[in-house]
Amino acid sequence: MTSAPPVPVRKTLTVLDHRIEVAAGRTIEQLWQHRDRGLLDGPHGALVDAHRDLVKAETAVTFHRVLLARLASGEFPVDQALLARIDRTVDQLAEVAGERDAQQATVQAALEQIETAAPPQPPRQVSTSDFAALLAITQGAKLHEHLVTRRLAVATTSRTRISYHQLQRLETAGLVHRDTSHPVHAGQPITLTDAGRAVLAAPRPAGPPGTSPPPVPWASTALARSRH
User: What is the pTM (predicted TM-score) of this model?
Assistant: First the structure.
């Protein structure tokens, strides 16, 4: 009897990995991380989702191929039970290989959409304080108006301070979006635009001493805890 292939704990290589990295300008590991943090646009997010399914399919192919090699290695006595297991494993290998090929075609279609699109504009560089504000917004932020003073203030889950003037600047730059369908006294949710996500996903150049950029969300244990 065969068992289901184990869930992969490490990334399995696929024949499309190199093309994906060239088209996206990032490693597979970075793309998976950025997808988990919601930093990818629609086409790149769809590509990563399809690639993850391809990795699972490729893992299943490897599992059944290794099992077949073990059955034919001489480890087991040749009898009807072994022959039945070999036949069953060959059928299963053919099935998962077909699923892998179908998923590979899905990834290739998503990849070609990115390859034929206009080259993306390089993400703009922002100040350290604006970078920190964008990080805070990914964890939850709302614009509130005080009922008495009418003062506008941004409340963030991470308690990062964002002034209304800074929010306006980020909005003007096209990095954040404010949901004005909600009344401001109840709180208007603030989210990142594709351009804002690109800023967070892009490598940060090293600055002068004392101006190091803040850590990305997945590098900070404290920030990671605040999301749960």
Answer: 0.59
